[in-house]
Amino acid sequence: MASDCEPALNQAESRNPTLERYLGALREAKNDSEQFAALLLVTKAVKAGDIDAKTRRRIFDAVGFTFPNRLLTTKEAPDGCPDHVLRALGVALLACFCSDPELATHPQVLNKIPILSTFLTARGDPDDAARRSMIDDTYQCLTAVAGTPRGPRHLIAGGTVSALCQAYLGHGYGFDQALALLVGLLAAAETQCWKEAEPDLLAVLRGLSEDFQKAEDASKFELCQLLPLFLPPTTVPPECLRDLQAGLARILGSKLSSWQRNPALKLAARLAHACGSDWIPAGSSGSKFLALLVNLACVEVRLALEETGTEVKEDVVTACYALMELGIQECTRCEQSLLKEPQKVQLVSIMKEAIGAVILYLQQVGPEKQKEPFVFASVRILGAWLAEETSSLRKEVCQLLPFLVRYAKTLYEEAEEANDLSQQVANLAISPTTPGPTWPGDALRLLLPGWCHLTVEDGPREILIKEGAPSLLCKYFLQQWELTSPGHDTSVLPDSVEIGLQTCCHIFLNLVVTAPGLIKRDACFTSLMNTLMTSLPALVQQQGRLLLAANVATLGLLMARLLSTSPALQGTPASRGFFGAAILFLSQSHVARATPGSDQAVLALSPDYEGIWADLQELWFLGMQAFTGCVPLLPWLAPAALRSRWPQELLQLLGSVSPNSVKPEMVAAYQGVLVELARANRLCREAMRLQAGEETASHYRMAALEQCLSEP
């Protein structure tokens, strides 16, 4: 083995005899002065030419870490020798060692990170060659550490991010290297960088944004590529948004080649992803800029997807999808929209053509491509369009529905891959950042709003049923419901989970009304009914989840009417618990409220219901109607309602408020429930009479109730 090594050693010696002579002097040094002199010579020889890994290791074996450590920390330099020269020598040796990946992760290198970081911002003569050399070597050390698997974490913990920011903002020697290293650290560990150095990173963003706004040369296109990495995960400072928008407006308003335009579109998409439309100013200039953005995005999408034989630049097209989504949001916004009505009409027409291109592309996607992130991004933009518009492109959408169901089913069955796809889409389209709430991790959630609209229409609904969408939706609902069940921390769940559950309920409500036979014959709806019954009692007690409880209660009541013969609904503990919770939801919506200057109270919404009544009232009225329909079908329900004291308390409430304060539709809803309870059970009638039911019925002109209570 020794004989194998000797030729290589002799070869290294013959290549650099000067270095070998200096290493010999270093090994034979008898004191600090001789060792210092030898180190200077070794460092000079190393800088004079390239060395291989074996030679670098031999230098390390000869030098070690002890003396470089002393050089970096010493405060007493020999007479006539500036102290930074000693530090420069120590850094030069570390830079040499760090060229070896194993040594770059050595604890003796990692614990120097705080010291090295201070060198980046140390004051001194900017023309001093030794100081410049030390700065170059410092960047070489830090860059080498950053290139190791755990290196970025060590650098962030050692204060390097703040030091790099200050070095860049100071625009001293090596500031361009500081920016390059910052870019690498943000790409590798964005969240940790912002957590450790947010004020400094924001200062860099302000500087870059200002430079971008002022740039008149090709540097503005380079800044387009850099800036997405420096947008914070929280709020972007308003002054930065102004500068970025102004710079983008100048770029995109000019005639550009694709290599100049594409980075600008990607930066705009990143801003749309982070800030929605808040970064675009109100008024004529803002509306024109937004219209331009969406126009350019749609043109790019059509050029990429309609032309055959050309390679699709997926990152650019996905960024254009984000801009189209911004256009969809603004076109459907009723209040404080940036766009005027004629602009909206024009953009909808342009986006319709681009969506047609997306549908054409998806029609050609084979099974082998279904797990590609660009397909996921294309389904996402189609889902955003269908959430707002299903009347146009109806034929094309119906033709694509079988693919969409299969695609959603594939990703649902491989949920982990779906989440990974979401991350890949974010990386592809925007930047190496964690996807935000607008990038949900499963394809089915993207399609739910559109399917909710489509299940109202006969043709699309029949296709969805034929392709097995209802069964898939039931499984999806049950799986998502598990995330909200006891044992899971619902406070950390994204809002999209609860919104997805509500949208599923809306789809099921559509199917209950339009396809009742499906509810009766498909076993998946029996499982769904069981889940609704067991879940509602706990749900109605939870703060802040009233809207979801309303959806569950109303859906369950409507399904119970169709599944009334099911054994599960024949007075079982689960069914009694469900109807008790439904009564709680329906009965707590209104209260008597005193009014100043009046002896009589008025009927008013309960505090919990008041803020969301606009979203809740349709469900509440539908729930009252469904409960009324369940009473004659379930003989045990009227006695249960009587035990809950709902009919008595309802009559008491009506008797305590002014009849003029109760709207006719409320009177009709209350009378419907009271009449069915009275008809179904003698004890209910007696209890209502004792609660002045006949008198109350007369006051409110509830003729049906008055007649029912007058009978034996």
From TrEMBL:
Belongs to the neurochondrin family. One of its GO terms (cellular component) is dendrite. InterPro entries: ARM-type_fold, Neurochondrin. Pfam families: Neurochondrin (PF05536). This is Neurochondrin. Transmembrane segments: none annotated. One of its GO terms (biological process) is neuron projection development.
